Amino acid sequence: MAINVDKILADKVFLEKIFDEMKAFKSKRGYDPLEGWEGSIKNPNLELGNNWDLLMEYLSDAIRNSNNVGCFDWDGGGIPGSSGAIYYYEYFGKYFLTSSDYEDEGPFDTQGEAELMHRDY
């Protein structure tokens, strides 16, 4: 699995928060994460130009810099490459998983849903 973009696009309130943050980002960090965006951000078409890449790159960074609400880690018993971690983040009221070993996942509506997801690994 991966970030569920369809779920993000279907949640207009959540999507608006993301784009509002992206618009404000330039004044805070000095670069515009929407530079190169094609078309409307109110009704985004991720098939245009680099829109998909711009949104996913921003989300990946924003999630990792949001509120970390938990971590599940494991030690591989000294076997090289066998340890790792899954981190839980809250971003605008939705929950996401990031990992040293797996693709990012989310959004989940509750932290409990996110925590259940890591058990599949």
Structural class category: alpha+beta
Task: Identify the quaternary structure here.
Answer: single chain
Helix coverage percent of residues? 25-40%
Most strands sheet: 4 strands, antiparallel
The order of strands across the largest sheet is 1-2-3-4
Number of helix segments?
Answer: 4
The gyration radius over C-alpha positions equals 16 Å
Structural domains: how many:
1
Element string (H = helix, E = strand): HHHEEEEH
Total number of strands: 4
Query: Percent of residues in beta strands?
Result: 15-25%
Instruction: Give the rounded overall mean pLDDT.
Output: 86
Topology:
Blueprint: H1 5-10, H2 12-29, H3 51-64, E1 67-74, E2 84-91, E3 94-99, E4 105-108, H4 111-118
Antiparallel strand pairs: 1-2, 2-3, 3-4
Q: What does this 3D model show about the protein?
A:
The protein is of the alpha+beta class. It has one domain. The protein contains 4 helices and 4 strands; from the N terminus they run H-H-H-E-E-E-E-H. Strand 3 and strand 4 (105-108) form a beta hairpin. The longest helix is centred in the N-terminal third of the chain and has 18 residues, at 12-29. The mean pLDDT is 86.
Short descriptors:
4-stranded antiparallel sheet; 38% helix
